[in-house]
Amino acid sequence: xxxxxxxxxxxxxxxxxxxxxxxxxxxGSGYAHANPTPAVGTVIGKALENHDGLEGVIEVVVGRF
Length: 65
What we know:
The protein is about 0% helix and about 45% strand. The protein has strands at about 10-15, 25-30, 30-35, 45, 55-60. A hairpin with a 2-residue loop joins β2 (about 25-30) and β3.
């Protein structure tokens, strides 16, 4: 079974540097990354935490934000 979030505050696996408020898009392999100019329809959510490092888990708001 796979958990899927359609709206709310959820944990998200991320790669790279992320700053609170960044828009998150797919980085492939089940991870997200910060994207300053995402294409329409590619945004997963908005970062609610900072992250410095290779890989980690942060909280992201999904849905209308």
